[in-house]
Amino acid sequence: MEFGIFLNGFVPGPAAHDRASEHLALKRELDLAVKADKHNWKYVWFGEHHTLTEYSHMSAPEVAMGYVAARTERVHLGTGINSLSPRKEHPARYAERAAMLDHITEGRFEWGTGRGAGSHELATFGIMDTDSTRAEWDEVSREVVRMWEQYDYSFHGEHFTVPTPHNILPKPYGHSHPPIWMACGNPGSFGKAGSLGIGAIAFNFEPIYNLKGRIEAYKEAAESPNEVLGDYQNNNVMMTNGVICLSDRRRAREIAMSAGLGYLVTLVNLYHDTMPKSLDEITWPDPPIHLGALGGEDLLDELIAGGYLLCGTPDEVCEQVAAYQQVGCDQLVFGVTGGLSHEEGLEMLELFGDQVIPNFDSSPEISTEVYRREAGGPKYPPYNSPVDPSLRHTVLPPAAIIPLPE
Quick check: 406 pLDDT over 70? Predict the structure, then answer.
């Protein structure tokens, strides 16, 4: 099992309305990615959200990735998630940015995709019906792969067009393309991701063993995909949760029982109205749950046993991680926010990375690197049809450019 962290640009409280504080919070989150690269973590996922005050100020993850890419060597950087509606922007822009990041990172970019997490941010772009983005994702996700591989790309679809042949540039790094992932919320979407041969990005809002059926639906579909969306199959289920892992057990539990973690949950319940709410269903501006006032230690132990969060010393957290391995998760990802100070976040990344991860992941290779390396070749031919030689500078690859006869 592999491990990663999830960065969302969390700027809680008054800091969200002060530009200097917002700047400091964003830069500190990027420092977490650099720290993770040095301590066995394999992935850093960057949220993409729009107009979600406090919860996420990470509206341009690709920009943040460029900053982090220059300061890291091994860790993979992924969009979590790139929402694909053509009403937000033309799909050629998704293909261009993904391919450019693939070059900047030299193959360390992961293309996580989805439909959008809630009605509030979709409405930013005039999208008022959240169900309408499903058909858009189906169309755009397939066409981006064609844009990566064809030199005379054109398309007349239901949701967007490229009316005449164009060469969408740059092409991805190396002989294939970035690993493709899809955000999954319900059992049906897990099966869909598996049947398309792409990774599943999931979020844990229920007891850990309830996830088993969803993961099994994915794995069953992945055994015989109906269609592999890209050049190769990315057989991966990623699950996101919270962790507080410190050498001081008492301090870790204090943080878990504070209102900080609960406050983050109230924002999730406010903005993510296309996904199930947490068990308490407390939604901002209602005050967050405070475990210390609700029975404290016993309730915390129940939540840990249920897999709602991981908390304790490295030895304790190792036991808790094992449950995710048992239900079949391929990758476990944590948000490093909610109650932790910046220094505690850095400490946790080092402690977890050095003392927990080696017990579950001893491979020097990253699974998606292996899948990509073994890709057989492009899914699509380099061109759709013979190209007019007058277009040779705009649509033909260099090997096909020949002098025109005099």
Answer: no
In sequence order, the 6+-apart residues with CB closer than 8 A to the CB of 45 are 4, 5, 6, 7, 78, 79, 80, 110, 112, 201, 238, 240, 333
pLDDT at site 125: 93
Spatial distance between the Cα atoms of 109 and 289, rounded to a whole number of angstroms: 37
Give CA separation, 224 vs 142, 231, 235, in Å. 19, 15, 11
SS3 163: strand
| Helices 133-149 and 91-104, axial angle in degrees (round to 10) | 50
Instruction: List all residues 6 or more positions away from 311 whose beta carbon is below 8 Å from its beta carbon.
Output: 243, 244, 245, 252, 253, 256, 300, 304, 317, 320
Residue identified by tokens 């983005």 is 133
Whose structure tokens read 């249920």? 306
**C-alpha span between 238 and 1 (Å, rounded):** 10
Parallel, antiparallel, or unpaired for β 153-156 and 161-166? Answer: antiparallel
DSSP track, 41-103: --EEEE---SSBTTTB--S-HHHHHHHHHTT-SS-EEEES-EE--TTTS-HHHHHHHHHHHHH
Which secondary structure element, helix H or strand E, spans residue 201, and what is its range?
Answer: strand 199-203
Helix (H) / strand (E) element for 325: namely helix 314-327
- pLDDT class for 394, splitting at 50, 70, 90? confident
Measured at the alpha carbon of residue 167, what is the angle toward residues 225 and 386, in degrees to the nearest 5? 85
Predicted TM-score (pTM) of the model is 0.94
Q: 201-253: per-residue pLDDT in tens?
A: 998 767 788 888 999 999 999 999 999 999 999 999 999 999 999 999 999 99
Rounded Cα gap, residues 299 and 281, in angstroms? 17
Taking a C-beta distance cutoff of 8 angstroms, is the pair 99, 171 a contact?
Answer: yes
CA–CA distance, 362 with 98 (Å, rounded to integer): 29
Question: Tens digits of per-residue pLDDT, 161-186?
Answer: 999 999 999 999 999 999 999 999 77
Angle value at C-alpha 335, between 210 and 72, nearest 5 degrees = 130
| Structure tokens belonging to residue 86 | 């053509």
Residue with tokens 């017990």, as numbered in its chain = 359
Structure tokens at 346: 């850095």
